[in-house]
Design a protein that fits this description.
7-stranded parallel β-sheet; 14% strand; alpha/beta; globular; 10 helices
Length: 276
């Protein structure tokens, strides 16, 4: 499918690795000029260079998305280079674990700063430029990367769950504010995806070799997802092909949220009783 993205300019926060990297690559494949904003200078520069090696336009801008001055400078630098901005993929995020008692104030602030405030700041400084593009094309776009935990919760993850819930509210608020001003805002909510952050989380378990099969089993499709599968959804929502979609949540979770009571209940409870 042709996504009609040739000549567009996109910012991808957290684009050095994982879902952000996959989104940057797919946008570049569609003819979009991509700017990666990331805190990791080595990974960011490497990813941008690899994408550019294929003939696409991709640059890296070192940026802490929780810092307003850094985000403002990075966005201005992107627009100064390309002259306009059409797409923001707000993907930067970190993971931490703890409940309301064990989570420190510092850990809470750090996670909220990156996962929720970071999306707010990226939008705050990108929107004025997106509005200009939206007036011309009628179709500028923000795609926020949430999570299945934007709608549900896993234990011992109070800050992460709260931030991801907040992203869904931010998506809907911005979608309403800019619906008639040429900017569409949507949220992609992945299930468990095989990314460096996921692998790091797996390594924390006393029996890491059991975690990936168990996570896969939590999804109706019986496996965890790939970054490229989420990137496909991001590119679609960023493109004119999704021209009448705003304020929406696209769940990319292999059916993780479908079964009542989880897959174990379906296999051993009343759900299984109806199977042939």
């Amino acid at each position: 499918m042709n996504f009609d993205l040739k000549g567009k300019v996109a910012i991808v926060t957290g684009g050095a690795m994982g879902i952000g990297e996959a989104a940057a690559r797919k946008l570049a494949e569609e003819g979009t000029s991509v700017a990666i904003l990331d805190l990791n200078p080595d990974a960011g520069a490497k990813t941008a260079a690899e994408i550019a090696k294929g003939g696409a336009i991709c640059d890296f801008f070192a940026c802490d998305v929780s810092n307003a001055a850094e985000v403002s400078r990075a966005v201005d630098a992107v627009v100064a280079k390309h002259g306009h901005l059409d797409i923001l993929v707000s993907n930067a995020g970190i993971q931490d674990y703890g409940d309301a008692v064990t989570t420190t104030e510092e850990a809470w602030d750090r996670l909220m700063g990156v996962n929720l405030k970071g999306c707010f700041l990226a939008s705050k400084f990108a929107v004025p430029h997106l509005l200009k593009s939206g007036v011309k094309s009628g179709d500028a776009a923000i795609v926020v990367v949430g999570s299945v935990q934007s709608m549900t919760a896993l234990g011992n993850s109070v800050a992460y769950v709260t931030a991801k819930h907040g992203l869904l509210g931010l998506t809907r608020a911005m979608a309403l504010d800019y619906a008639q001003k040429g900017i569409r805002v949507n949220c992609v909510c992945p299930g468990a995806i095989d990314t460096p952050m996921f692998r790091w989380a797996v390594s924390l378990d006393p029996n890491p070799e059991n975690v990936i099969p168990s996570c896969g089993h939590a999804h109706a499709m019986g496996r965890i997802g790939r970054s490229e599968e989420v990137a496909d959804a991001i590119v679609y929502l960023a493109s004119p092909r999704a021209s009448f979609i705003t304020g929406a949540t696209l769940v990319v979770d292999g059916g993780m949220l479908v079964p009542a009571g989880g897959m174990g209940f379906q296999e051993g409870g009343t759900g299984a009783a109806t199977k042939e």
